[in-house]
Design a protein that fits this description.
The chain is mainly alpha-helical. It is 57% helix and 0% strand. The protein has helices spanning 14-21, 26-42, 49-59, 61-65, 69-81, 87-91, 120-136, 143-150, 157-164, 169-189, 194-200.
Amino acid sequence: MSPRIPQQPAAESGSHRTELDARLAAELASVVSGARRRALRDGDRQIDTAHLLHSLLEADPQVRTVFDGAPQVARLLGYLVQRSIGYGLRWQSGVEDSGAVPVVADAGWSPVVAEAGWSPVAAGAMDSACERAELRGDERARCLDLLAAIVTDPQSRAVEVLRRAGVDVRTLLLRIENAFDTEDEFACEFRPDFETFETYVGGGGQGCRSNR
């Protein structure tokens, strides 16, 4: 029986944690805190994508809506809570590193990768989530940004759990993108026309109309 790798604290130093949280919406920062607590409680070496997926499902209703109904979510959570057996035992002896995410020592590249306590894949997913938000014009990443990021690496632990639960990852990604598209359409449809509004209810001058 091979010896287990010595445990390391699944947490970042204060400065890097503050830097990371500044890039996240409040809901996503809460999700990350939940994943961090779960990793520490379970004695895991690092925060990995399965921790993040578990926390996303438990904390965010919008994340749950992109799955194929409550039964699928329940089945998926059932697999995630069994981390201490089966595949979870295999995970304890290694690091989640699919080789798809370069681990860069330069702290300027990533406040997550630069710190111990994150798997390379989870760290890359956090950076990708922030990049998605920036490309969309948002200053902070949201929960669906992270969900999209963690399922794009086919070798991630999160994708392994998704497949075990019978989730089609391609369909899931399409639903995530559709959720963003629907949100954008809703915002455009209900964005008020302030110029017309002011003309209609202006300050009592000639431009002000009245139904009386």
